[in-house]
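Our example pasted here:


***
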Amino acid sequence: MSKRQFTITSPDEIRSVMRVVLALVTELVHSERKGVRVTVQTVSIRTAAQRKRMWARLKDISKQVNWYGRYLSSKEWKIVFTASLTLEDVVPNIESTGFVVLGEQTRELSSKETSALLELMDAFGIQEGVQFSEPGRDAPPPEQTKLSA
């Protein structure tokens, strides 16, 4: 059986999720005669607003930034930014025709880590002259960046 994860984000969900988990564990123990590992941990999941903003940023960057002679897809940019944020490693693929990034996926990032990822995208986009489509998130005009006297 593949790994199953359940995330509880409010007290109202506790009973229903625990019923499902109990039924699943009971079935697995009885049918497969194997042990089952149950792990409980706290999570700080990213918000829907963060997810929406992330994909908007990635779309804008993918359409506007020529990266070493090519335009990357939103998914490819997501890998680039995540690798940069989490200091991931790369290894050659099996055929030695390219490389594979080792590390985290964005769905595993906490809300705080997602905020850092969005800040990285904003900084990179501003550096590359990206005009972001999300209102109010472009770089401030030059006159607003000067210190007032």
